[in-house]
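Re: that backbone. Tokens:
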């Protein structure tokens, strides 16, 4: 670890101490046991409380405020690991040896350059588009550049998916909780490449595509930002780490050791988070046997929403709207009276402090002080004042605390990123969790198909249009 970055590691270690102060280390038994399908769960609107699948990739302890990747605590991974190592961990389930990590890093570096995708992005109206729309279309261009799926003579090799006839059973069946998926993959017959394709083209699922997406979604986001701001697209630097290369490709500047370390921690913090809306969206698409590029594209689409990944961008606008720490109390009172959702606060699962906010808050303070900018300082003071106001008023009863999006925007702006880049940067990290969970789910795939309670009318009699009584408008 570089000399100057020791202070950052201490900051993370202190955040962990605060998080675990006086807390038991007891996972929630209901969410960390072996499962025997079918399971009973009490489900609310928005699938609240629903158990969609089992997973070893990660665990969010909402009551204690923990985040675990493959058994490792997020604070330890931020303090001692790197984003590349965390991607390996999420994908393969164990920390790599030095040799494994070096070979994985080489694979990622090899896949950073995306000339074909950039060529197609240049033809897309990027300047008039939302940055996440550019990122989403970029994943489709990546699919075309990296796989043989769009080749005229390629037919998806469905023989590798053995479909039982259970699928034809009408929906009214009671789930038998079959251990075996309706679709099972005959592993021996992975989707084989058509004979006459370029050897560099990858199968639409599997390791190569997971690496391609982890590595190249960052390149797409960077190229999109450069084209959106009429700047020259910067080629990736194979000498730089994933975090440093990301900053370099977006800003044109190679970061200091401290900036690189902070970017690496941000990428680790955002990499995975259970089956949140965007991860679930990508799993639903993958479960139809569509390919991993389409699935990641749907994750990008879901993450864009202001209730999800899009909140980080709106937090900064909200802080600018408040204008000064003295305005916070009145602003908060008005927001409550208008029943406004305060961006960067609340969470479906965390009913305690989001551990990621525990790291991002001090990182924001560190960068604001290092920047010496009075503007940044004021924004941070407004954020702290708002955090206090919300926690005092909504923390105890409604369990509303800052989430990952509350301080991330301040950190991003101190690192020189534009507000439009905040949500794409979330996606650049989260693609690791999306592909790891898609790969895991496809091992025992079952198409997602929840049901609704029908509350509409029944037995309506059809009346020909000329007999219908005209409703006077
Ligand atoms: C992310 O799921 C994940 O893991 C997501 C994520 C990830 O890593 O993938 O953690 C990333 O998306 C973080 C969340 C970013 N979004 C925001 O910051 C937007 C503001 N937050 C809210 O919209 C809300 O808290 C959600 C969407 C995050 C959670 O919504 P829920 O679980 O559906 O909760 P709810 O909207 O039903 O609210 C329950 C109550 C309501 O009050 P009552 O109607 O019962 O009186 O809490 C209130 C809400 O009004 N409430 C808020 C609030 N969040 C909840 N009130 C004011 N401000 C808020 N932010």
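Recovered sequence:
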């Amino acid at each position: 670890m570089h000399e100057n970055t020791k202070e950052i590691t201490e900051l993370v270690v202190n955040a962990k101490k605060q998080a675990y102060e006086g807390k038991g280390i007891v996972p929630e038994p209901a969410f960390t046991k072996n499962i025997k399908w079918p399971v009973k769960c009490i489900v609310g609107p928005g699938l609240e409380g629903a158990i969609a699948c089992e997973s070893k990739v990660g665990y969010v302890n909402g009551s204690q405020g923990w985040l675990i990747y493959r058994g490792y605590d997020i604070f330890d991974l931020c303090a001692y690991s790197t984003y590349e190592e965390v991607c390996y961990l999420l994908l393969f389930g164990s920390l790599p040896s030095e040799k494994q990590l070096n070979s994985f890093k080489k694979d990622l570096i090899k896949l950073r350059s995306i000339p074909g995708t950039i060529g197609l992005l240049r033809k897309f109206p990027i300047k008039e588009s939302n940055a996440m729309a550019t990122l989403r279309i970029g994943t489709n261009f990546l699919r075309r550049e990296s796989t043989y799926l769009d080749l005229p003579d390629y037919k998806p090799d469905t023989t590798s998916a053995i479909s039982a006839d259970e699928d034809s059973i009408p929906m009214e069946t009671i789930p038998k909780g079959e251990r075996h998926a309706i679709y099972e993959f005959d592993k021996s017959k992975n989707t084989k490449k058509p004979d006459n394709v370029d050897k560099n083209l990858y199968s639409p699922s599997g390791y190569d595509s997971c690496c391609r997406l982890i590595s190249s979604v960052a390149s797409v986001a960077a190229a999109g930002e450069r084209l959106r701001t009429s700047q020259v697209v910067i080629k990736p630097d194979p000498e730089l780490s994933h975090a440093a290369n990301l900053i370099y490709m977006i800003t044109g500047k190679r970061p200091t050791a401290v900036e690189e370390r902070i970017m690496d921690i941000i990428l680790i913090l955002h990499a995975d988070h259970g089956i949140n809306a965007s991860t679930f969206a990508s799993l639903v698409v993958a479960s139809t046997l569509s390919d991993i590029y389409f699935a990641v594209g749907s994750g990008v689409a879901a993450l864009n929403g202001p209730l999800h990944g899009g909140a980080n961008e709106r937090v900064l606008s909200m802080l600018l709207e408040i204008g000064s720490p003295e305005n916070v109390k009145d602003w908060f009172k008005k927001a409550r009276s208008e029943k406004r959702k305060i961006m960067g606060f609340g969470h479906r699962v965390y009913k305690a402090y989001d551990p990621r906010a525990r790291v991002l808050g001090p990182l924001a303070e560190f960068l604001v002080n290092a920047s010496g900018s009075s503007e940044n300082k004021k924004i941070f003071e407004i954020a702290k004042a708002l955090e206090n106001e919300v926690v005092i008023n909504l923390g105890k009863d409604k369990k509303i605390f800052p989430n990952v999006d509350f301080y991330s925007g301040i950190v991003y702006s101190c690192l020189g990123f534009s507000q439009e880049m905040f949500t794409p940067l979330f996606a650049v990290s989260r693609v690791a969790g999306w592909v790891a969970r898609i790969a895991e789910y496809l091992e025992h795939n079952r198409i997602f198909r929840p049901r609704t309670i029908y509350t509409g009318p029944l037995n309506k009699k059809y009346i020909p249009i000329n007999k219908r009584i005209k409703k006077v408008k």
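The radius of gyration is 24 Å. The chain has 17 helices and five strands.
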